[in-house]
Amino acid sequence: MPWSLRAKLLTDLILVIWGTAAFLINLGANLWAASQYVLNGRYVWAALVLTLLGLSSVALQVFSWVWLRADPPGLHESQPPGRCLALLHLLQLGYLYRCKQGLQQALLVWQQEVPSEFDLAYADFLSLDISMLRLFETFLEKTPQLTLILAILLQSGQAEPYQWVVICTAFVGISWALLDYHQALRTCLPSKRHLRLVSSVIYFLWNLLLLWPRVLAVALFSALFPRYVALHFLGLWLVLLFWVWLQGTDFMPDPCSEWLYRATVASILYFSWFNVAEGHSRGRATIHLVFLLSDSVLMVVTWLTHSAWLPSGIPLQILLPVGGVSFLLGLVLRLVYHHWLHPSCHREPAEVDGTRALHSPEWCQLPQNTRMIRLAWNFFPKTWEGDGNGVL
Fold it and tell me: Which residues cross the membrane (predicted)?
């Protein structure tokens, strides 16, 4: 086996283990926080944490189950019977089953002296689904949980150890999910080179720095006006859902599950950019950025006209410059990434990597994750080779 391929397989194996461990650590941290809120008599906070966990978990199980039912018959040969699989998803274990399945396939490929084309393609197939589920979990659970915990800290003015654990795991998990999703989509298209180490670090940082001001804005609004944040989210979410519907998404296998996908995308768009339609995305991304920026500015004006201090006594003048500097730095790093570090800036031939199955003569007979391939063509427009089209 070539050293480059073996190194990539080892990296993929480590990433599968890391992704699963990060999910379990974040889950444990949130359950720890919820239990502490109950012990301290903060039942509303505990209920919010558990509600976000529950809604996110249910959505992940539905996506996983629908995709498994839509996959070609006989693709997952080692899969348990249908009733056992349904029970796993009913018990909210479907995502962990996916992670276990991906880990087993990665180990199988790693142990082979010369991995078969089918095993390599099947490993890519599984990793693409896991990356997509991880991204959904990030914006349905991690990002709202991070916003909630920051709002609680801003209200109380003090942080407990378990809250810092939630914050740290959420921040790392969010940026990691965005980077992993971006890399996974590149394995779908043979023309797309993978990110180098420096490019990956910068991509990780600018996503983190641009997402942080939005999370901070919503957290501050929640701390100052806790009774209105649900109305604010619902109002913007309906507008974003209508926008997603206008773009005519076609990702899921049936109309009912397609609406679940659109609702999830609208939740992602509440915090960050996510491309779902074919064609040039620069205009849509700019509209979305201006929309979120305008909403955040309106929230800032609302804070300052009602109160310059948080309930805990922290002045808003301390936090607002932090968000502004983070936003500007994130934009600078994004420009640096697209002008000097984007894979399209390097003209050397693409190496043999995760796209190897697409170059094979038997490509049509190998496992192909068609839903993710369609999404990759939307994410990387064919006529716009120089655009990273990432999450803003």
Answer: 12-33, 45-68, 162-181, 201-221, 228-247, 259-277, 289-310, 316-337
